[in-house]
Amino acid sequence: MIDSYPLLRPWLFSLDAEQAHNLTMSNLDRAERWGLLGLLIKKPSPDPRTVCGITFPNPVGLAAGLDKDGKHIDALGALGFGFLEIGTVTPKPQPGNPKPRMFRLPAAQGIINRMGFNNDGVDACVERVRRSAYWQNGGIVGLNIGKNASTPIEDAASDYVSAMETVYKVASYITVNISSPNTQNLRALQGEDMLRSLLSALHLAREALSDRHGVRKPLFLKIAPDLEQNDIKLIADLLVEFGIDAIIATNTTIARDGVQGLEFGEETGGLSGSPVRLASTKVIQSLRDTLGDAIPIIGVGGILSGNDAQEKVAAGASLIQLYSGLIYRGPKLITECAAALHKR
Fold first, then answer.
1. Of the four, 122, 139, 198, 219, which is 20 to 30 A from 8 by CA?
2. Among 268, 328, 275, CA closest to 13
3. Positions in the chain short of pLDDT 50
4. Which residues pair with 271 in a beta bridge?
5. Tell me, what DSSP letter sits at residue 46?
């Protein structure tokens, strides 16, 4: 099977990063509708993993951010992912930050973005999930939720509870995103008092939703790579205390290690891709050392090869997620990572 992405990438990289993303997703949708993806994409072999009561067809998932609104679920599902995470979605629609807001750093295989949770709102996303054939046929779709930029940080819990209530019926699992650097003060939610208050509100809301719907949906927390060891220990303790089912490590970094002096290297926003790999893996290892086997870890950050996927699992991750690596490697990366983890 011919890997055409290396031929397309120079042309895509000649375009604005956000424009190229939208164009790629539109063409991916078109190829899926025409039935071409099955001919062009070699899917991973089945390699089921059961985590948090969910049996994932393989351990390689899509990270949140690539499909913020659930507009491309069927096309992305056809690429062979074991699961998709959609979002971040917020209770009300919002445009996000001004453009340009996404920048490639090819020399470092990195991306800086300051998108700012641009999305059509949680109601629109949930309706798209319901309409997708992937979801209707049992595909695993996680919903990643956040707060609106206009909501004061002290009222953040109300936004997260509202979004959770809306996504609860359709989500295979729900991820609470408190670690994006692109919404003002959001990372303050990783501090002890605010995190305790947020997790307490989410715990109570989930108990009520579980009773109402007769099913307890897994709740995940996504954290930053820019945490000190004491912060990691604190978060780990709170996860256990409030019954959070898994942790996603990590989001983008505000550090600029490895990109100093590069074009766009000083742009504000979160840095992802290869430059965040080691920081992400270090957080995973610290979490595993702290938590033992109490809570599963989903590893994400700088996975651009099968070896990188193995590194995350060796550090303590049960599953992995891809995003920036897809921009540099294309869909072949999914199968490569799945094959590398299948060997384990």
1. 139
2. 328
3. none
4. 112, 253
5. P
Determine whether 180 is an active site residue: yes
Residue type, 236: A
- For 223-256, what is each residue's pLDDT tens digit? 999 999 999 999 999 999 999 999 999 999 999 9
Closest CA to 9 of 97, 103, 106: 106
Is omega for the bond preceding 331 within 30 degrees of 0, making it cis? no
Question: CA–CA separation, 45 vs 276, rounded Å?
Answer: 28
Alpha helices in the chain (DSSP H): 5-13, 17-33, 37-40, 73-77, 122-131, 133-136, 156-167, 192-213, 229-241, 277-291, 306-315, 324-329, 332-343
User: What are the structural domains, with CATH classification, of the chain?
Assistant: 44-343 (3.20.20.70)
Point out the catalytic residue in the list 132, 172, 179, 180: 180
Of 201, 250, 197, which Cα lies nearest the Cα of 222?
A: 250
Q: Cβ contacts of residue 334 below 8 Å, gap of 6+? A: 44, 60, 79, 80, 81, 322, 326
